[in-house]
Amino acid sequence: MTHIRPRWRLGAAVLALGLAAAACGGGTTPSPSETGPADDAEGPLVVYSGRGEDLVGEAFEMFTAETGIEVEVRYGGTAELAATLLEEGDRSPADIYWAQDAGALGAMQDAGMFATLPADVLDRVDQKFRSADGSWVGVTGRVRTLVYNTDELGEDEVPASVFDLTDPEWQGRVGWAPTNGSFQSFVTAMREIHGEDTTREWLEGMLANDVKEFESNTPIVDAVGRGEISVGLVNHYYLYRFLAEDDTFPAANKFLSADVGGLVNVAGIGILQSSTRPAAAQAFAEWVLGSQAQGYFSSVREELEYPLATDVTAAEELPALDTLNPPDIDLSSLDDLEGTLQLLREVGALE
Amino acid sequence: MTAGPAARSAVPTGRRPSGGSRQASLAVSVPALLVGAASLLPVVYLVARAWGGDLIGIATNGRTLALLGRTTLLAAAVTAACLLLGVTFAFLTTRTDLPGRRIWAILLALPLVVPTFVGAYTLIAAVAPGGLFATWFSARGVTLPSPYGFGGAFFTLTMYSYPYVLLTVQAALRGSDPALEEASRTLGVGTWATLRRVTLPQIRPAAAAGSLLVVLYVLSDFGAVSLLRYSTFTRAIYLQYRAAFDRTPAAILGLMLVALTIVVLVVETRVGRDRGGQFRGRGAAPGRRHTTVALGRWRLPAFLACGAVALAGLAVPMTVIGTWLLRGIEAGEDFSFVFRAARHSLWASLLGAVAAVAAAMPVALWATRHPGRWSRATERAAFTGYALPGIVVALSLVFFGIRFGGPLYQTTVMLIFAYVVLFLPQAIGAIRASLLQVPANVEEAARTLGSRPLTAVLRVVVPLARRGAVAGGALVFLTTMKELPATLLLAPIGFDTLATRVWSSTNEAFFARAAAPALALILLGSVPLAVVSFRSGPASRTLRSQDRDGVG
User: Fold this and answer.
1) Alpha-carbon distance B144 to A8, whole Å?
2) 8 Å CB contact of B508 and A52
3) From B407, which residue of chain A is nearest by alpha-carbon distance?
4) Which of A71, A286, B59, B364 has its CB surrounded by the most CB atoms within 10 Å?
């Protein structure tokens, strides 16, 4: 009986020592004030990306091949990563945050999490697609469109404005995703441009017209293809994903001109105030708005996003951004999602 | 003759099995308290974040109450269905002469491996208008029911959670003492009556433990209910995080979920406790096997029932995933990333399972051998992490990890810690059920022979709870393989798992790319299930051979 006790005690002692060492030991991440711009900390560039690995993974590889800077990427949901960054505060190991929509960027901007970007990076992009105070910049554009089933409808049969979707002929044939960030940004834009009352009327009209609710953009496009619904309110580039896997997929995008339903939102980046590798981060910001990266984003068959650098043209399949006449709005203001959420709940679009 | 321990335990009484010592050894209670404290980290985080928020306002407004109603309805319905399925199939696969019952035991538990968001996605792809099955059926004039809303959520959650009850009850049935049933039959009670009056009450603690896991899982689930458009508490919490970037209202909703969990735990205590200890087993004596119930004319219906459920739970996702996979192969997709992701998944799940069982052991020991206010409170604390949505646990560990974790932040250690906080109750439940079946007199015999209380526990009781430890470990292994939100936020960068690959691909509509990791997930998950299932085999074979040789 006695032989087990010393062994157990020894094991417990070793464990305790190990835990103590782990808890107290280790270095601290140097605070930004200790290192100047020319004096980056060791280690790879750390990016928190709300954009999926299937979409941007290759871009990071291209960046490393081009500049020799190693990158480590944490992929996740845009909002979850924003919440994580806010929790981490100035101890965050991240250098760059790449968000899927401007609302998230605006929220981080409000919380003072971003460092100011260099002027030459900001100037590569139209004023509409970056923050007013230089804290974030749009990298690619995503346009709100109406995706429709091509077996059922011709392009001219699809309404030219989202306001027409409350007509009786569209009853039960339209789908939206009220829990999705891009949709909520669109409703925020509608509130900004047309006012609270018009927006409320439209929402109630859509609900009265038996609009179908989906979790996000992808299920909407999927449902349109299957014929479950005829029209869906989505971002333009999801369709091309489906077409890449199956080019007989019976759906197409209708781009709305001069209508809030054609809102152009951005996926963009900001350099974190807490970054310990500002030089590398700036190099990335310059690269991602350069012709190599922008050309990549617009040419990959499954992506077909809008490059926002002013000197790069979009893919041929897409209508040019300046012909679209999108609504004029300060994208940073799209972070007032609380007001939009409240409205959506009041009308019953969201529980 | 023996007047001591043997005689005392021959008469079942309400006496606690600890055999006299009211104080648990510090070596059991201190680790248990530490584990309990660690499990409370998410609650501390929620309180810290909810501070200053409109607690009363949010908690009492109509919308929140409607959410509460919907959530409890779903949880109650799913639990009832899981109990029915779980207990029936556990019985069919362990105590009857069902043909192929060893295979059925694995097949029927296999749905546990499918993440619910994959189950929901594939259900929609199959059954929604224009889906795979729907087009086939509608060509023959049959409209399938809609997968959305309560019906779809109920179906999906039941299909992928009933194995919790199945596994825990199977373990209890295999480990229980056949003597009681034999005695009942000797006294002239028929087979089915014996089943109802003797066997079922024996498995009540295990069934309660399994259903507790189901209820709390339904409370925490997000993937299925959001895709199937049934709004529950967890969905509201996620919405707050996703849209408002304001963590206070989300924290308040999180605290309400914690309160709900405590209510559920209190209810479970009343229902699941083995009061009076009258069915505390003496363990299966060597040479004693359970009587197999002959099904007779019920054989075919039972066989068909097993087939139908296995089909519904597995065939739908497998068909859809298979279709995606074929599309992917045709398109020349590169699947090499699956091997790395699979390695990570296996490694993390194995570590998580071992850590969870190690952490659960002191808690379960303390709670079963020395039930008291503190041990019960510790056990309950361990359950709070399980009912909370993964995002809450993940953010709470980000909060603490970045402040106190030092270099451990975003390492595998932190990730395993998160898994333990999330899934500890699965291990506790299984070990507890096993411990309840350990007879008191064995420990007392050890003490009589001179060993100290702690040594008696470690060398005698813990090995006898091995079956529960393995079952609990297997459960945690499976659930960890499917875990998503904590892995995304806390794993070391670049540590992709099969679950995160499936999520990132389906999220961006790269279905063909999602198929291979999804398939790998299901195949790899069947391994621990097979292990658990076959463990009971050799034991009964040994007993049979002893019987033949006349030993024991």
Assistant:
1) 61
2) yes
3) A26
4) B364
